[in-house]
Amino acid sequence: MQQTTSNKQLNPCEINPALRLFFALTFSEEERAAIEDLRSNLKKQYSGLPLKWISPENLHLTLYFCGEVTKPQLEEIIPILSNATFPKIFKFTARIATIFPNTNHPVALVLEPEICPQLLAIHKILRTSIDNILDNPDPRPYRPHITLAKIPRREKFDLQKLKTQEETISINIIAKKVTLLCSNYVQHQNHYHKIASWLLLD
Length: 202
What we know:
Blueprint: E1 3-6, E2 18-25, H1 29-45, E3 52-53, E4 61-70, H2 71-82, E5 90-102, E6 105-113, H3 117-130, E7 146-150, H4 159-166, E8 171-175, E9 177-186, E10 189-199
Antiparallel strand pairs: 1-10, 2-4, 2-9, 3-7, 5-6, 5-8, 6-7, 9-10
């Protein structure tokens, strides 16, 4: 059984009848600083392109996207996951800066981790635990990534620059908890609010 923490602070998500929710890993200050160093280099490379860079406080690795969730559905989800058996605390390394989902349909500039069985295991636990609760569960295959910037449509990229980055990136991340976040779009920007979190065991 996981230890659960909740966010008691009022936030804009609480007034909406349906919440846009996702599960994620969030980062320590040190990890966020390492990602910011990488982004500084990428910003120089792509200074001529109108990328929409993600705010540093919003950086995360998505574990499972829920989409629209009603309050009654949320009340079902939290107790179920409080009894889930997640992996213990683990480390992984992010190494590849690339286009997501692919160069034919570029949506985001992302940082991808090495193959990590624990990330895949957490995603599977979340999917099998709550898919039957959601109205429209996400059918897409899971591909772990950290979104660095959103790509406007029809922009062209020099992929060779990203391949150069692949050879030098090595950002170590320690996964300590699974966090359920609510996304609230205000004034053309996403704001994330914590709903609950489940600590991974030592």
